[in-house]
Amino acid sequence: MPNTFYRAFDAETLGGKRKPDYRSAFQVDRDRVIHAHAFRKLQSKTQVFLSGEYDFYRTRLTHSMEVAQIGRSICRYLRSRGRPMREHFHIDSDLVEAICLAHDLGHPPFGHSGERTLQELMQPHGGFEGNAQTLHLLTETIYQNEDGVRGMQPTRALLDGVLKYKKLYREFPQPPAQHFLYDPQVVYRDYVFAGVAIPAALRAGGALNACKSIECQIMDWADDAAYSLNDIVDGVKAGFLTIERIERWAAGEAVDAAQQRLLDALFDAIRSDRLESAFSVKIGRFIQACRLRERDHFMAAKTNRYRFELVVAAEAEREAQFFKKLANDIIFESPQLQQMEHKARLVLSSLWDSCWRNYVATGSRVIHILPPNIGALIAAEATAAGKARRICDWLAGLTDGMIVHTYRRLFDPEFGSIRDLS
User: Model pTM?
Assistant: First the structure.
């Protein structure tokens, strides 16, 4: 018996019908994400620490795999609880896995440092946002071929699942730094909502950005669960988080009794060298902190994906927020990570400037510094904003190693030779 939680509406694919397949539509989504070049590149993109420094640090790829595991487990847990889920009416774990695996595809090299730099560079040209870039890849660039096929032809449910934010860049009174869609992506928002009018109340303030399908909510919590805990584990292993540093940090914070208990348990786990196993148990508790609740929503008549919302126990949310703040204040604000941000700004800004001067600012290209296919895409764009988006796509698609190699080839006189052209 089929899973009646989903309708043909949910499995409809962008760009036309797919060929018949032995897999479900959502299994095809998952498999296409896994086999995409952009997914493999995540193994060499920074999560917290620069990829390749040590084998045990998480990269964007291992992080995405962990988020996918947590997302699948949440689906299984919610189904095991019974109503409103039941045997033939449940959230599809293949779909949630696909969304989780895809959720970071659009993030650039150098992690959040790289994202902030591209946000500044693209502000006059429609902005840059990691989640909007993920949507851009899924709909425009992944599996693009000479026949004119663009994107991976995702299902409506997958497309909606990666849409953490639904407000367009132009719909903000002032250009935002993050949490928006690119203006041309309105067509994909319209596709997700299938022409159903967005209520005026949702268009005001940030309400539209909180309009998420149930699968998107599961992905979002799985992401929070993964990085709020795993950043701590990596930080301790890297030596950024020591008991002494955490105690100094806590002395300047208004730590309440519940947060002090979290710190005491963290210290015990560090001293006994069992941090990884202790935090694995916490992930299990974060999974079991999930519940489903029915809600009124303007899309509920169209799809069950908007008939339910995820409710996470307040204690688990507070714990995740506490560990995220701890990691941000001690790790991300550390001189070492700030130095990496400085490097990201230097490398990305220098490459951007070279591309702009050679492909946009002059009437004809001065030096062919980009791969020919990228140069052709830039030349085909009629507007400066379009050309900027093509340059941004190229930069965002580079891995940490690729972008440093390219920078050194262009700017380091001692690096590279005529034989080093790949």
Answer: 0.93
Helix 314-327 to helix 214-238 angle (10° resolution) is 40
In the block, residue with structure tokens 């693009």 = 144
Cis omega (within 30 of 0) on the bond before 84? yes
2-35 pLDDT, tens per residue? 999 999 999 999 987 888 899 999 999 999 999 9
Q: Are 359 and 394 within 8 A, CB to CB?
A: no
pLDDT(406) > 70: yes
List, in order, residues 6 or more apart from 207 with CB less than 8 Å away: 201
Find out whether 396 and 133 touch, Cβ atoms under 8 Å. yes
Domain 8-210 has CATH 1.10.3210.10: yes
H-helix or E-strand containing 55? none
**One-letter amino acid for residue 289 of the chain:** A
Cα–Cα distance measured from residue 263 to residue 255, given in angstroms and rounded to the nearest whole number: 9
Which residues are within 8 A (CB) of 403 and not within 5 positions of it... i.e. 6 or more apart? 109, 110, 347, 348, 351, 395
The dihedrals phi and psi of 304, each to the nearest 5 degrees, come to -70, -15
Domain locations in the chain?
8-210, 214-335, 336-411
Give the integer Cα–Cα distance in Å for 80 and 76: 6
Rg (CA), the chain: 22
Query: In whole angstroms, what is the distance from residue 31 CA to residue 143 CA?
Result: 13
